[in-house]
Every structure is written in structure tokens, then in C-alpha cells.
Write a structure and sequence with these properties.
Largest sheet: 5 strands, parallel
CATH superfamily: 5'-nuclease
Radius of gyration: 14 Å
Strand order of the largest sheet: 3-2-1-4-5
Distance between the termini: 16 Å
Structural class: alpha/beta
Oligomer: single chain
Number of domains: 1
Shape: globular
Number of helices: 7
CATH class: Alpha Beta
Length: 138
């Protein structure tokens, strides 16, 4: 099985498909996880990013509640931040000139010896430490 870290831009597509590109690729990734071809993980903070993304989409409360409830049923292992992971995240953010949030996905992928799948390769593709796959290419 291939270790795969996904960022929030991928997870959001499974919760709300309105005006979302690359849905076919996101669905393939989810199916691969369900068929145990890949393992999915994400930093714990991605739950907050997902909630914020849904808020920006201005979902009605009942739809948002349903989407937020779905998160715990997805085959994603959410990893809490440790001191070591925080330090690596900060180092990556500083070196790549990206946000701590974006760097947290890179640091986790590095820690887990995983590839990173993102629909936002512009920021997370700024490292040579890991393999970054744009969702459109999955």
C-alpha cells in the first residue's frame, strides 16, 4: 500500500462537489483508499481548514453539518502535531516561504515517507523532500 498524505483541498471535494474541479481524480483516490491500494493521512489541523473551506462556500447549516459529520467516516488517519513535527513544519515553512499550514502537509508526508496529493501544488510543490502529486494528475 502506498502511504499518501492528502491536503484539505482534496478532502473538501468529497464533502461538497459544487464548483469543484478534478472530482473524478478525487473519487479515484477515495476508491483506492477504500480498496486498500493507498493509505490516507492528514494533519489534524486539516479538519479546521476543511470547516473553513465549507464556511467560505456558504453552505446552509444542515449541509455543513452533514459534510462535517462525514469527515469521521472517511478513510483518513488524522495525525496530531508533535513537537518534532511542529519543528519540521516551521523549518519547511521558513525555507519554502509558505504558510505553516501548507508546510504541515509536507512535514507529515516527509515523516510518514508518503507522497502528497494536493489540488494546490503551487504552494506545496515548493519542496524536493517529498513526491508531490497534483490531484489533476492522479
Amino acid at each position: 500500500m502506498k502511504n499518501t498524505v492528502i491536503d484539505s483541498s482534496v478532502t473538501v471535494k468529497w464533502l461538497n462537489q459544487i464548483n469543484e474541479p478534478n472530482l473524478k481524480q478525487a473519487d479515484k483516490l477515495l476508491q483506492d483508499a477504500q480498496h486498500q491500494k493507498v493509505t490516507l493521512s492528514a494533519p489534524e489541523l486539516s479538519k479546521y481548514e476543511i470547516g473553513n473551506a465549507l464556511l467560505k462556500k456558504q453552505l446552509p447549516l444542515h449541509q455543513a453539518n452533514e459534510a462535517l459529520g462525514t469527515i469521521s467516516h472517511l478513510p483518513i488517519k488524522f495525525i496530531p502535531e508533535t513537537e518534532q513535527l511542529a519543528q519540521e513544519t516551521y523549518k519547511i515553512a521558513q525555507q519554502a516561504h509558505i504558510t505553516y499550514y501548507d508546510a504541515s502537509f509536507i512535514a507529515l508526508a516527509k515523516q510518514e515517507n508518503a507522497q502528497l496529493v494536493t489540488d494546490n501544488p503551487k504552494h506545496q510543490g515548493k519542496t524536493n523532500d517529498i513526491i508531490v502529486i497534483a490531484l489533476k494528475d492522479y
